[in-house]
């Protein structure tokens, strides 16, 4: 069975060895006679899975005491609302506007009626082609929100800013576990699972417990306290997705953890960026000092030629290379499970296309 060279921005490819384990255990997980999909989330077998998943994630990311790990649903999009609902105290929050997802996060805070929302820096005026300079902020904010990696635009924070009087809330959906971070730099981290972690339907939240507002009355499912109190088992969790996530965490640990992953990701991204730099038809629209290693856009500057490239690439088995509709051109998403070989094949295809187009 030939696997596709799938450059999807998400859901994205999973490690083959993980899928093989899933397949092997599909009908009977550890002699239980049932799939994890069919198993009670109150069973000791499933409790072991979710506990191990949490332990592994704690180990991989170095999550300290005082931070809770939650396995939730609703995607990163629900966290755009849950973060303000649970963390706003004084009513003053800050956002760094680095792209479409950051804008959506800001928009949810507005819908909730958060009284004072400051956009402290933005690169919107430049089409989000770089991470804006982050000003020093001494004022107190309930939090300042950043998007560590901008999936659509292909930019990433190269260093995490520090704010003296504000914890950072980070949307890490597209680079959790593929960049090295110190969890202590954040008050809250959230990420949809469907890029680096596992199937869609699972959302990871890592939250510093003492930031959570205790004065609030929120619907139970939207209150972090509910999920903390119940170890993410208040209601039926996305059990199968949590099981696959656990397998992905094991795979990553065996590989050498996040440090080794970063090395591999930099190698893959380096090869693709070098090919773009050396090309006479492809260019990167992204400032060198802001480039993502997981989502890499490139353009020819000619819409028809872009479309031709995408069509021919698709026919050759390189899938989902079309850039997001808001940006155009091409985008290769090369998350953790994407193999170096696949990137190499793409760069060879790009070079052949360039030679054929005669430029
Ligand atoms: N934030 C970022 C950075 C994303 O890349 C995405 C999805 O691609 C989202 C948020 C939305 O995630 P979800 O579909 O899990 O709500």
Automatic annotation (TrEMBL):
Gene3D superfamilies: Aspartate Aminotransferase, domain 1 (3.90.1150.10), Type I PLP-dependent aspartate aminotransferase-like (Major domain) (3.40.640.10). Residues 6-346 form the Aminotransferase class V domain. The modification N6-(pyridoxal phosphate)lysine is found at residue 195. L-glutamate binds at residue 42. One of its GO terms (biological process) is L-serine biosynthetic process. Its EC number is 2.6.1.52. It catalyses: O-phospho-L-serine + 2-oxoglutarate = 3-phosphooxypyruvate + L-glutamate; 4-(phosphooxy)-L-threonine + 2-oxoglutarate = (R)-3-hydroxy-2-oxo-4-phosphooxybutanoate + L-glutamate. Pathway: Amino-acid biosynthesis; L-serine biosynthesis; L-serine from 3-phospho-D-glycerate: step 2/3. It is found in: Cytoplasm. Belongs to the class-V pyridoxal-phosphate-dependent aminotransferase family. SerC subfamily. Homodimer. This is Phosphoserine aminotransferase. It comes from Trichococcus palustris. The lineage of its organism: Bacteria, Bacillati, Bacillota, Bacilli, Lactobacillales.
């Amino acid at each position: 069975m030939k696997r596709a060279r799938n450059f999807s921005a998400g859901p994205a490819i999973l490690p083959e060895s993980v899928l093989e384990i899933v397949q092997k255990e599909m009908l009977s997980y550890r002699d239980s006679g049932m799939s994890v999909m069919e198993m009670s989330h109150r069973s000791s077998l499933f409790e072991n899975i979710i506990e191990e998943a949490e332990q592994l994630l704690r180990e991989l990311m170095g999550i300290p005491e005082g931070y809770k790990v939650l396995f939730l649903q609703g995607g990163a999009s629900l966290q755009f609302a849950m973060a303000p609902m649970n963390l706003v105290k004084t009513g003053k929050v800050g956002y760094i506007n680095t792209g479409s997802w950051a804008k959506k996060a800001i928009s949810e805070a507005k819908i909730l009626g958060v009284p004072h929302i400051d956009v402290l820096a933005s690169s919107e005026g430049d089409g989000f082609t770089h991470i804006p300079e982050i000003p020093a902020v001494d004022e107190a904010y309930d939090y300042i929100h950043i998007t560590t990696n901008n999936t659509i635009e292909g930019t990433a924070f190269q260093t995490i800013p520090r704010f003296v009087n504000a914890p950072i809330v980070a949307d890490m959906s597209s680079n959790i576990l593929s960049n090295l971070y110190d969890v202590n730099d954040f008050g809250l981290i959230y990420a949809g699972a469907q890029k680096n972690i596992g199937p869609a339907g699972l959302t990871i939240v890592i939250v510093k417990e003492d930031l959570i507002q205790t004065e609030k009355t929120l619907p139970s499912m939207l209150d972090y306290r509910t999920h903390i109190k119940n170890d993410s088992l208040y209601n039926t969790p996305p059990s199968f997705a949590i099981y696959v996530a656990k397998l992905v965490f094991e795979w990553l640990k065996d590989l050498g953890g996040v440090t080794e992953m970063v090395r591999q990701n930099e190698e893959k991204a380096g090869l693709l960026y070098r090919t773009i730099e050396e090309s006479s038809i492809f260019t990167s629209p992204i400032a060198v000092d802001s480039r993502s290693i997981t989502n890499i856009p490139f353009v020819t500057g000619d819409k028809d030629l872009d479309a031709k490239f995408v069509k021919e690439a698709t026919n050759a088995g390189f899938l989902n290379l079309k850039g997001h509709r808001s940006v155009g051109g091409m985008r290769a998403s090369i998350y953790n499970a994407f193999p170096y070989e696949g990137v190499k094949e793409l760069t060879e295809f790009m070079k052949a296309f360039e030679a054929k187009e005669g430029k």
